[in-house]
Specification:
19 strands; mainly beta; six-stranded antiparallel sheet; Immunoglobulin-like; seven-stranded mixed sheet; 2 domains; elongated
Length: 306
């Protein structure tokens, strides 16, 4: 009896199999496709002084020349799916860093990237990308902050590749100090009317005054003759200007003995450079402002501030 059942079962299987094959044409329904897909995302760093608002139009040749720390958040249908920190990069120094995201279910995704940010500068609950807020940490922090928000979709089981550009969030002011007199013990630079905060998934907001005071020690006097100091600030509000001021202090006194306005009609622009040369000449300060310097953003030659 059991043997007959096995024979009948085998016969039915053969009949069913042959029923969807006619004249050599396979009419059988296709096997179910995988319900997950994958995405390969190549991340590039925007080149300093890229004139375009598209960071991919001009990219750094070596990713790690600009990026030392990378935080990422992946959202699926506006819910946090994955997050992590990358602080070790390949020694081969390629032009990009690659994320390989596999086993992604169908849906709408968003990758949010924040580079070089100190933990205290990035706030907000990561459960929603709209919560993430980057705050200007002050001029003492000379890191360049980069961000990117990249939406993508998974519709099938295909493996799709993308390119994403990290945008520098700050502008750069480079001060060069020349011929400072021996009595000068501190130099303070002030930039008024620049943004304080930036929504990672949105615009800048709130206004602040950025300032930095440098203590000039005797052993560094010579360095200050041809010294420079680089400051990054968030941009000036659109269609507005920032005011730039210099204060000189002598012999450690609490109040400046000389205060001068450099200019009040310049705007700090994202990823762009303002070069300001300050020279003490016959008891007065002379200023030269250059918006077309060919400086590439390297830190070589900068004065180390204690």
């Amino acid at each position: 009896m059991t043997k007959k059942i096995k024979i009948i079962g085998l016969f039915l299987f053969v009949v069913l199999l042959s029923a969807c094959v006619k004249d050599g044409e396979d009419l059988c329904p296709p096997e179910p496709r995988s319900l997950t897909g994958s995405a390969i995302i190549h991340v590039y760093a925007e080149k300093f002084r890229n004139k375009s608002q598209n960071p991919l139009d001009d990219r750094e040749a070596v990713f790690t020349d600009r990026i030392t720390h990378l935080r990422y958040f992946v959202y699926k249908n506006n819910e946090l799916h994955d997050e992590g920190i990358i602080d070790k990069f390949p020694k081969a120094a390629p032009s990009s860093y690659t994320f390989s995201l596999s086993d992604l279910e169908k849906g709408e995704y968003k990758m949010v990237l924040i580079a070089n940010s100190a933990k205290k500068s990035l706030t907000g609950l990561a459960a929603k990308s709209a919560n993430l807020l980057l705050t200007f940490p002050g001029c003492l922090d000379n890191e360049d902050y980069f961000t990117a928000v990249f939406p993508f979709s998974i519709k099938d089981d295909r493996n799709t590749e993308y390119e994403v550009g990290l945008m520098r969030t700050n502008g750069v002011i480079r001060y060069t100090f020349n011929n400072m007199p021996e009595e000068v013990s501190d130099i303070e630079v002030i930039m008024k009317n620049v943004y304080l905060e930036k929504w990672i998934d949105g615009d800048y907001k709130n206004i602040c005054e950025a300032n930095m005071k440098y203590l000039i020690t005797p052993r560094k006097k010579q360095a200050w003759i041809d010294g420079e100091y680089v400051i990054g600030t968030f941009p000036t509000p659109t269609n507005e200007f920032s005011a730039f001021h210099i204060n000189l202090y002598r012999n450690g006194e609490p109040e400046p003995y000389m205060s001068r306005m450099v200019t009040e009609d310049l705007s700090v622009l994202r990823n762009q450079l303002i070069d300001i040369a300050v020279t003490f000449n016959n008891g007065e300060l002379d200023f030269i402002v250059d918006l077309d310097s060919d400086w590439d953003g390297s830190s070589s030659g900068s004065v180390e501030i204690e």
